[in-house]
Write a structure and sequence with these properties.
Elements (H helix, E strand, L loop, with lengths): L10 H9 L5 H11 L8 H7 L12 E5 L5 H9 L3 E6 L2 H14 L5 E5 L12 E7 L8 H11 E14 L4 H10 L9 H7 L3 E7 L1 H21 L5 H19 L3 E9 L5
Parallel strand pairs: 1-2, 1-4, 2-3, 4-5
Antiparallel strand pairs: 5-7, 6-7
Bound molecules: S-adenosylmethionine (SAM).
């Protein structure tokens, strides 16, 4: 199967699908096939292990908060490999219910929990987390300083925040339309450290990981196309949809408009 599958879909189709990305089970589960089990982000588990995980403090008993926990893949991996607890928070009811339904198999010791809502949820207690992490989620927040300041409040003094997020490297009319339809609020990789500082964090480390993400997107797409050749469960319409989405993302990354940053920072020990 060639990756140059033509698409008859209109802009209205695309907007409808983008708007229902996290509310329709089929849309989530078909993306999981390309991202990998438990994930809704480029490179799936391998990417999480290569980027966010090495930055996290994982000493026994640590409590971690996953913002935008999606299908729970990162949380389930962490509790399977490390003696930690993970709370996931996600605004999509379906993500939380799918994660919950997978807990018995993926986390028999019950060291994960999933909260429906955002970081401002009353279920999250101030200074109760050793680390907060987030993969491909803060791009949905317009006021990142407000979200990051709440993360600082939720962390114990000396706690760590790790964020992997899509960012903006440039602008074209087509890219702006894409960003608006998807509901993204993108900042430059170089602008993130200032946002973290305004939210009260110190020791900020920022890396542009766009080249790596671009590689992951291509790798996921190639693996998906190879699988789609032989897997009768993968429908032609889904292949067309995902191939088109991936080509657009890769195109924007090749052009330098879409970038990705990896950020780590610390909550000061005292104010
Ligand atoms: C691209 S997915 C990434 C999911 C997961 N982090 C992963 O890597 O597989 C983004 C997730 O963030 C959730 N989300 C969007 N805005 C959010 C917010 N303000 N607070 C919490 N979750 C949010 C969405 O429902 C979705 O599950």
């Amino acid at each position: 199967m060639s990756s140059n599958v033509s698409s008859p879909r209109s802009d209205a189709d695309r907007e409808y699908e983008e708007g229902n990305r996290y509310t329709v089970p089929h849309n989530i589960l078909r993306s999981e096939v390309i991202y990998g089990e438990g994930f809704q982000s480029s490179g799936g588990l391998a990417a999480f292990r290569e980027t966010v995980l090495p930055e996290l403090p994982l000493s026994p008993g640590s409590r971690l908060l996953d913002i935008g926990s999606g299908l729970g893949g990162a949380a389930f991996h962490l509790v399977a490999e490390y003696p930690v607890e993970v709370v996931g928070v996600d605004t999509a009811e379906l993500m939380v219910s799918i994660s919950d339904s997978r807990r018995p198999a993926k986390d028999p010791e019950g060291r994960t929990s999933f909260v429906l809502g955002d970081v401002f949820s009353a279920a999250l207690e101030p200074e109760s987390f050793d680390a907060v992490y987030s993969q491909d989620t803060l791009l949905y927040s317009a006021d990142k300083v407000k979200v990051l300041a709440r993360c600082a409040e939720l962390l114990r003094p000396g706690g760590t925040i790790v964020v992997n997020d899509f960012c903006r490297g440039g602008s074209t009319p087509e890219f702006e339309e894409y960003v608006e339809n998807a509901g993204y609020h993108l900042v430059a990789v170089s602008g993130y450290p200032e946002l973290l500082a305004q939210a009260g964090f110190t020791d900020v480390v920022a890396k542009d990981v766009s080249t790596h993400t671009n590689h992951l997107l291509r790798r996921d797409l190639d693996a998906y196309l190879a699988r789609a050749e032989h897997d009768p469960a993968i429908g032609r319409a889904d292949v067309e949809h995902l191939v088109e989405r991936w080509h657009r993302k890769i195109g924007f990354m090749d052009a330098g408009a879409l970038t990705q940053g990896l950020f780590r920072a610390a909550k000061p020990l005292s104010n």
